[in-house]
Amino acid sequence: MRRSPAAIPFSAPLRQRAILAGLLAGLALGAPARAAEPAFAARVIDPHPGEICYAVTLADVDGDARQDIVVVTENAVLWYGNPAETAGEWKKHTVIRDQTPRDNVCIAPHDIDGDGQVSFAVGASWPKTGSVHWLRRGATLDEPWKVVDLGPLHSTHRMRWADVLGSGKAQLVVSPLAAPEGKPGVALTAFTVPAEPAKDRWPATILDGSLNRMHNHAQADVDADGRIDTLTASREGVHLIRHRESGIAKATLASGIAGGTPDASGCGEIKLGSLAGGREFLVTVEPMHGTAVAVYHPSAEGPAAPWRRKVIDEGYVRGHALATVDLDGDGGDEIVFGSSDPSAVEGHGPTLAVYRANIDGSRWTREVIDAGGVTVEDLVAADLTGDGNPDIVAVGRATHNVKLYVNTLPPRR
């Protein structure tokens, strides 16, 4: 595969001249200038928090109105305090260590007990039995966190908070990876927080049990009816699952990539984004641990009809993480992608890359942010420095590290 010109790094003077030329051209033609492409300053937050950094999320753990970095390793959950200064130290703290069945694999922050402070749901016992837990903070952060066991869930793999049942309060939505023996699919489950979450059973609603190898899911109001839906990425493709008064409805949006075997088919990662003009898109990694990045646009027949697929890049090995976020302030989302393994295709692994669309999403260009410095297992993007520009955090599998990529565009606020 030919290397994308966008993947060839600019020197700083060339980048500045390219941005200036674009601005002048836009003014000369009376057209709006294209937003400047962000550059990123990389910083190692922790070179080795564990043997595998399985997951990363953001949460204001200490209540200072700044997002802290939270990392899941095989036997621990750690948080790194966001410093007041951009160049300050991200101080490491332990939430738990060796208190859940090894390995921890996923995490979701939420104010679970309504005390106004964030705590965490965690999935563990990966890839064995699978278990779900609540990490309950003490009266102060100096006290140890407690682990509340919520029960087993076979092959627990990903979790997110969303009100998919329309109750007015978020549920913990968990997607297992592999179906139990004798079952056709995994138990995509929504756990409701009871009145006394440390004592009472958490009621479980099965949203679907027919899909297998469900590597990830996402939540959004896809059909704009005011209710949160679930988008799933499995070996059967992309599905839209909606909870209604009459029951649970499922629609197939896409079949993903077609492989020679079931596990070489479908999708493995999924995120929803929107272009500068407001047009929505889905982005997937295909198949699970896959080689291709694909973008889907809604059908004219509606969001529950099959979406139109376009592969925007391929040649990766073990693509494993996605985010959609407006990095440059132009009103449209970029795609942040990470893979973990070497590839025979030049510039494709291990890779942390950003894909940027033109106005209608018909063309995407790629810029490599990090080539080999982190073997991406998971990533997240949000403003961590308070300047209005989203930054990127990625965690590594073989590299074992946590890296922050600070967006160096001028402040938006």
Please explain how this structure is put together.
The protein has one helix spanning 12-29; strands at residues 40-46, 53-59, 68-73, 76-81, 91-97, 106-110, 119-124, 131-136, 146-152, 156-162, 171-176, 188-191, 204-208, 216-220, 229-234, 237-244, 247-254, 269-274, 280-286, 292-297, 308-314, 319-325, 334-339, 351-357, 364-371, 376-382, 391-396, 402-407. The longest helix is centred in the first third of the chain and has 18 residues, at 12-29. The chain is mainly beta. Strands 1-28-27-26 form a four-stranded antiparallel beta sheet, with no helix packed on it. A four-stranded antiparallel beta sheet has the order 2-3-4-5, with no helix packed on it. The chain is globular, with a radius of gyration of 21 Å. Residues 1-33 have low confidence and may be disordered.
Summarize the entry for a quick read:
This protein has 413 residues and is mainly beta. Helices cover 4% and strands 43% of the residues.
